[in-house]
Automatic annotation (TrEMBL):
Catalyzed chemical reaction(s): hydrogencarbonate + L-glutamine + 2 ATP + H2O = carbamoyl phosphate + L-glutamate + 2 ADP + phosphate + 2 H(+); L-glutamine + H2O = L-glutamate + NH4(+)
Enzyme class: ligase
The protein's name: Carbamoyl phosphate synthase small chain
Segments forming a coiled coil: none
UniProt KW keywords: Amino-acid biosynthesis, Arginine biosynthesis, ATP-binding, Glutamine amidotransferase, Ligase, Nucleotide-binding, Pyrimidine biosynthesis
Region (CPSase): 1-174
Keyword ATP-binding: yes
Catalytic residue positions: 257 (nucleophile), 347, 349
Matches recorded under HAMAP family: CPSase_S_chain
Family: Belongs to the CarA family.
Amino acid sequence: MTQAKAALVLEDGRVFRGTAFGAQGQTLGEAVFCTAMTGYQETLTDPSYARQIVVATAPQIGNTGWNDEDDESGKIWVAGYAVRDPSRVSSNWRSTGTLQDQLDRQDVVGIAGIDTRAVVRHLRTRGSMKAGVFSGAALAGDDELLARVNGQPSMLGADLAEEVSTDGLYTIEPVGEHRFTVVAVDLGIKTNTPRMFAERGVRTHVVPSNTSLDDILALNPNGVFLSNGPGDPATQTGAIALTQGVLERGIPLFGICFGNQILGRALGRNTYKMKFGHRGINIPVVEEGTGRISITAQNHGFALEGEKGEQFDTPFGKAEVSHICANDGTVEGVRLIDGRAFSVQYHPEAAAGPHDAAYLFDRFAGLMEGS
């Protein structure tokens, strides 16, 4: 059987030709790469990847198939998927189907058989950029495809949190004795985060990204959590104002990934778009106060401005840069020095990824207990 032709077209005119993988048609998004060797199901269903075409650096993808347990949300969120070698056979005791079938079922347009090493080297050199994957009837001349790619909006200035957020409140009950109640603002939350809270006796009310402070206070939380999510944090004026309201009332606050950027902006810091971002499950981070090094899971294309060890004044008290990426010095966390609010740029819920940072959930539980 002849496989349908496909093309990955980048905004600077570079074209990679391969075969269709998943659904056929057209998809547009920002081309990024993920260095994770495992966990493709969690990656594909992570809402933080909304409107992004993910290039997998692992050479073979799909060997464990697809299962009913590892989704990090209710659907695949990536705009497209680019791989080198799709596994012809999926084999795992939990597998209920293949990756190819799932991409097709959820209408995710992908491409296979391309030199993903060359794509990644190009994106590392030139930076993440607008892109498109085209196959089947969507194929056309290169000039036409390039025009479609460059006609899409940029990730800079993209307001995406409301697109991926829950439509209404839902609650995850604690495992065992109830200790605390947390309101989690869903900016693109992953399934494993409320599960991590539940294991620590925390009832989690997950609320939409546009929830008001009054609605959060009505739930009488012991703490507020800001989730991961996609897009440009500078667009989140509502979430930033909400965070400032939480800080004014002294409610313990914990943020991860996008939530780190929201807390940082609430404290008066700026954010910027990174050249190609951090996406993978093997990124080393140093906690400045303790020297502790964690290998972390990350997925972000924006970051907070700041320097290693920097302290700065805010309307809510003195704050500091608490974590730094060991690879490139990127800010990986901020906190109020009095301890009542902190955030990290990485994913301590680790789905997929190492468990080095799971202690941060215990730290937040200790903060709520102390307050």
